[in-house]
Design goal:
This protein is mostly helical and 119 residues long. 70% of the residues lie in helices and 0% in strands. Helix 3 runs antiparallel to helix 5 and helix 5 runs antiparallel to helix 6. The C terminus is likely disordered.
Length: 119
Amino acid sequence: MDFTLTDEAIAESITILINQCWKTLPIFEGKNKYGGTLCSREEAYQNYQKHLTFLSTKLRGATEIWKNDQYYVELLYMVEGMKSFSQDEHDKVKYIVNHCTNILNDMKKEVLKDGTEIL
């Protein structure tokens, strides 16, 4: 597929990906957006795995746009690596989610070149 996106459109898609990445932790925890318990620990872990598959699929779909970007490659590695975490590795999930959002913010700054944030 051959299409061209503006820098602003790419930055906005990264913002959406940042939000989707942030959702990983409460999904892993089985929490709703208000912090209340949504499901059992086992169901939360299954939802976490499904969400990682979603993120991985989305990232792989952007390979043509980002294949030469160091941040993108690291992000894809991190999301794929998170699939191997067990239900008992909350601290690792939290750390990697924060790391991934930092990578995405770096990607967005790179796209915008002047460091301007799009919220």
